[in-house]
Amino acid sequence: MLSIKNLHASIEGTPILRGINLEVKAGEVHAIMGPNGSGKSTLASVLAGREEYEVTEGEVIFKGIDLLELSPEVRAREGVFLAFQYPVEIPGVSSTNFLRTAVNQVREYRGLDPLDAVKFLTLMKEKMKLVEIDQKLLSRSLNEGFSGGEKKRNEIFQMAMLDPTLSILDETDSGLDIDALRIVSNGVNQLKSDKNATIVVTHYQRLLDYIVPDFVHVLYNGRIVKSGTKELAMELEEKGYDWIKEEVDSKATV
Amino acid sequence: MSKDNQILEELTSKEYEHGWSVNYEADEAPVGLTEETIRWISAKKEEPQWLLDWRLKAFKTWQAMSEPKWANVHYPKIDLQSLKYYSAPKLANKPKNLDEVDPELLDIYKRLGINLNEQKRLQGIAVDAVLDSVSVATTFKGTLSKLGIVFCSFSEAVKEHPELVKKYLGSVVPMTDNYYAALNAAVFSDGSFCYIPKGVRCPMELSTYFRINAANTGQFERTLIVAEDESYVSYLEGCTAPQRDENQLHAAVVEIYAGAHAEVKYSTVQNWFPGSKEGVGGIYNFVTKRGICAGDFSKISWTQVETGSAVTWKYPSCILKGDNSIGEFYSVAVTNNYQQADTGTKMIHIGKNTKSRIVSKGISAGKSQNSYRGQVQVMKRATNARNFSQCDSLLMGDRCGAHTFPYIDINNPTAKVEHEATTSKIGEDQLFYCNQRGIATEDAVALIVNGYAKEVLNQLPMEFAVEAQKLLALTLEGSVG
Ligand SMILES: Nc1ncnc2c1ncn2[C@@H]1O[C@H](COP(=O)(O)OP(=O)(O)OP(=O)(O)O)[C@@H](O)[C@H]1O
Ligand SMILES: [Mg+2]
Fold it and tell me: For B101, how many CA atoms within 13 A lie in the half-sphere containing its CB?
């Protein structure tokens, strides 16, 4: 489904991604871990099409299409969803209104009729249950004054509404309380199918108890330096990143 | 809900959509402005002597005045002698009812989306349609007159209700008020008149639709609204003009009188031709609007959505004379390309416990300049006066300008005046967030801007709010990305 080859990207001339290789197949869950500043959010942003980042080398093929050629909105309509590490506030625009616009633009692109008010509301009610989100929250201005946890929950609610093929969750677990973590993870799990795939960026092994990954990758200095299964996450939890950094740095000096 | 979708669909059309004109036979005043022009207009309208005298006095006053220069707008000198001051569609006889109105004229309004045919109108909005200088038709007159409400063209009011016109004309905006108000007093050709008797709540929205059609004419309309004690009326005003390379002058006057416990809501969606993307043509919109809360516990509320015109100069104001009276001003002013707007309000607190509220949302894009100019004046007698002002500016791109000129003048120590102002830019991260959910940039801009202006749009009657949202989006198309 997603094939990233030798991806290099920089911002304002500073290289951040320095040769990422990653293969994600339908039905899989990939976890990306790594120290602060290693480039995890950058990778997510580049996949979503944020213009500030310049791709200097490499390719990204998504469902057989050259993803890097597409505008951010077309990527989204093709099924790429990014749950933001820091969701953005839009004053005066309710989540409901925002999502109706989004859902119908996505539907139009996919050749579906727009949802009328009643159908939209029905869909919303169904998806609200999934992440146990309060309807009151959805009539407020999007993310404005939302608590950290509410913002994250709202991201997953949007994901449920948009029915993406590839979901990238950037530290969705941070800010969630213990119960919310379980609820939101359950939501993500229910949305999983053999047709879609999920990339979860996280710092904590705990999330991976709920959303069980098929692969775990460690990103360091703009490269994936180690890949493994869920045991790798356990090992990282226990030992931290130093041993990996040392491994990489010693190789580099050889 | 589905209304919003509709709006978004319509977002795809680009240019100023009312930019067409229609040829019809017109009765026109000769070019130029002299005493003769004024006599010509007055005679044409078969006016009584007192009104001609009033006009001539205004003309004398105006001749001694000079154009105001303090506004933050720049435009070449307007040659007032090259304009025509009167243009009216030629009618064999003044139509007595809608069936007699020239179908061609009705058609113009149909193209604007305004159906003047009463039977076909679904929403209960009474409309007075003004084309160039004269009123062509007023709907729902019968229904309204049963309640004692007068809603008709200004000329008709002069004939049918001279005592009312005489009493209130110039009582809120004196002819000496300013250069454009004096000019209007001298040459105004028509407009709307509305009278709500004591204790009557007007059961429908009253609406005037102004359209400039003829070339090289100025449009000078006058609106007078009188709401007697304990009455209520909501009044809407909309406007469009054809796309022409020359600039055209529009200088209107609106006067509102509110008696004790009366409430008047006045909403405007201003969509005159803004000029081309390169800044050619467009309307010069120099308007004086003022209301007086004459009685205790009266309320006047102005709501305006200003999207059109090349240059706008406009300050709908409230004189809060009655004790406990309330004045409100809600404004969204959008400028794009080379548009310039200098708009705001004046709240003059005279009575005790008077309150005013100002919410101004400026949006500037392209190379436009957008200024808020507002004055809050608290007189000696106005014990416990309150004002709250919120002036926000939203910038799109870095070639436009937003300016705020608040003037506060307080002569009573018990006054409480609060002023808040913010300036923000439409954020890259907001746009990206919308894009990431599948929303195209233009629609994202529309969404963000409408959210920003929501507090003002919420003040508009439903049908107008939808229209206004659409206009905001259209005005800003192509301003980002
Ligand atoms: N505009 C910029 N100019 C220079 N460097 C930048 C800019 N934006 C981001 N960076 C740098 O890029 C690097 C990668 O940032 P990124 O947000 O991708 O890290 P991350 O792995 O997501 O970290 P965290 O775990 O803290 O979320 C960081 O060192 C960051 O400071
Ligand atoms: Mg990050």
Answer: 22
Identity of residue B218: G
Interface pTM (ipTM) of the complex? Answer: 0.96
Q: Is B155 exposed, middle or buried (0-12, 13-18, 19+ CB in 10 A)?
A: buried
Using CB atoms, which residue from B428, B433, B452 is nearest to A92? B452
A82 within ligand 1 shell (Cβ under 6 A): no
Q: Is the CB of A198 under 6 A from ligand 1?
A: no
The structure tokens listed for A29 are 């869950």
Query: Of A140, A139, A72, whose CA–CA distance to A106 is shortest?
Result: A72
User: Which range (A39-48, B115-124, B418-427) has the least confidence?
Assistant: B115-124
Q: Chain A residue with minimal CA distance to B456? A: A92
Q: What is the pLDDT of residue B8?
A: 31
Domains of chain A: 1-27+48-69 (no CATH), 71-216 (3.40.50.300)
Considering only residues B471 and B206, tell me which one the structure prediction assigns the higher pLDDT: B206
Distance from C-alpha of B199 to C-alpha of B208, rounded to nearest angstrom: 23
DSSP string, chain A: -EEEEEEEEEETTEEEEEEEEEEE-TT-EEEEE--TTSSHHHHHHHHHT-TTEEEEEEEEEETTEEGGGS-HHHHHHHTEEEE-SSPPPEEEEEHHHHHHHHHHHHHHHTT-PPP-HHHHHHHHHHHHHHHT--HHHHHSEETTT--HHHHHHHHHHHHHHH--SEEEEESTTTT--HHHHHHHHHHHHHH--SS-EEEEE-S-HHHHHHS--SEEEEEETTEEEEEE-HHHHHHHHHH-SHHHHHHHHHHHH-
Q: How many angstroms separate the alpha carbon of residue A240 from the centre of ligand 1?
A: 20
pLDDT in tens, B304-358: 998 888 888 999 999 999 999 999 999 999 888 888 889 999 999 999 999 999 9
Looking at the CA of A37, name the nearest ligand: 1
A235 vs chain B: nearest CA distance in angstroms? 34
**Phi–psi pair at A152, nearest 5 degrees:** -65, -40
Which of B3, B8, B431, B435 best tests the A interface by mutation, with the highest count of A CBs <10 A? B435
Q: Which pTM does this prediction carry?
A: 0.83
Q: How many CA atoms lie within 13 A of A107 on its CB side?
A: 14
- Write out the H or E segment, with its range, that includes residue B445: helix B441-452
B383 CA to centre of ligand 1 in angstroms: 57
Residues A157 and A167: their CA atoms lie apart, in Å, by 12
**Chain A residue whose CA is closest to B458:** A92
CA triplet B281, B285, B290: central angle to 5 degrees?
A: 175
Using the structure block, give the residue that is written with the tokens 């404004």. Answer: B331
